[in-house]
Write a structure and sequence with these properties.
One of its GO terms (biological process) is regulation of cell shape. This protein is mostly beta strands. The protein has three helices and 27 strands. The longest helix is centred in the C-terminal third of the chain and has 10 residues.
Length: 340
């Protein structure tokens, strides 16, 4: 039997009163399958696992009230790992993240039939917030609400992709579920014309920080960014932004105490004690937003993964896929990226 089958059971003459389904794993363990009995029909809660034997037991009453027990067994088709697409969901279950972090579902192999997968992926929030999916590629899809998440929201994600056809003869390998919480509203507003950063916490100005951005040739991108990662005591290398030792802009390995990544291409908010004299006055960096060590330490302590950075004042825009750049599209542009 194909793994994209949803098992149902009903009585032809009489009424089904009980049913259960389990399979024997390849390690010999008995694994029960959840299901619901409604209106005389039992429906399995998930699709099937490959290459295993299932046992379905049913109990029904005929029109005379006689109880009849029946057992059926069947096997599912074997699938190789190349026939199955692994699924990973973030944010992780139980986590707390900032108001700008999208739901991200990644796949280890390309999804040919994106609509098939998307029909089995849902995001619900409390309080309710409308949004949609956007496919960045055949291996990655994001969900975001129309505006930033409401602070304190509870979010439930279901990617019920086990056994779902992905096109090209492949199927989803598993179902993934995640429940996470949205923390307080934190938005860092970076103005690279004035070289000031206003950090807004729950809508109020918490701190104004003098900064420096990218100098000509290394212009910092304007647009909405999201804190992707936080690290302490890292070494920044010129090679990571494509500079070779014979380049006049090359710099020696530089230790940085506080760093908060905002793009895949190498932009950070970070401590830059070497440029304090320029901070608040001019842009001298290789593209990052630098500040004093004391200010960077305060920022590091007050931002979370998923908090928002809104940068203005340059003519270099953010591009889709360079970090969590999702908020640079309008809600209509975002919705157009859905497969449905």
């Amino acid at each position: 039997m194909s793994v994209d089958t949803r098992v149902t059971a009903a009585a032809q003459k009489g009424t089904l009163t009980k049913a259960s389904l389990f399979y024997t794993s390849k390690k010999g363990n008995r694994i029960p399958v959840d299901g619901t009995l409604q209106g005389g029909t039992w429906t399995a809660g998930d699709l099937l696992e490959p290459g295993v034997q299932y046992t379905l037991t049913m109990q029904a009453k005929d029109t005379d009230g006689k109880v009849v027990d029946t057992t059926k067994t069947f096997r599912t088709v074997n699938l190789t790992l190349d026939d199955q697409i692994d699924v990973a969901v973030s944010p992780r279950d139980g986590g707390t993240v900032g108001i700008g972090l999208p739901v991200v579902v990644r796949f280890d192999l390309p999804v040919v039939d994106r609509a098939s997968f998307e029909k089995h992926m849902t995001v619900t929030a409390t309080p309710a917030q409308s949004g949609s999916w956007y496919w960045l590629s055949s291996r990655e899809v994001h969900w975001r609400p129309k505006t930033y998440w409401q602070a304190g929201s509870k979010v439930h994600v279901e990617a019920r992709l086990n056994g779902v056809p992905a096109g090209g003869g492949r199927f989803g390998q598993k179902t993934q579920i995640s429940d996470f919480t949205i923390g307080r509203s934190v938005i860092a507003k970076v103005n690279l014309k004035t070289d000031q950063m206003d950090v807004m916490i729950n809508g109020k100005l918490a701190k104004r920080i003098p900064v420096t951005g990218g100098r000509p040739g290394f212009i910092t991108r304007s647009g909405t960014k999201v804190i992707m990662d936080k690290q302490m005591n890292i070494t920044m290398k010129a090679e990571t932004i494509g500079l070779k030792k014979d380049d006049p802009n090359y710099y020696a390995d530089t230790k940085v105490k506080y760093a908060m990544r905002v793009t895949n291409s190498g932009e950070f908010l970070h401590s830059a004690p070497w440029s304090v004299a320029d901070q608040g006055h001019r842009n001298v960096s290789h593209g990052c937003t630098g500040m004093s060590e004391a200010n960077a330490g305060w920022l590091y302590d007050n931002v979370a993964i998923g908090d928002v950075v809104e940068t203005t004042g340059t003519n270099r825009p953010m591009t889709m896929g360079n970090g969590y750049s999702d908020w640079n599209l309008t809600p209509a542009q975002w919705a157009a990226g859905s497969a449905l």
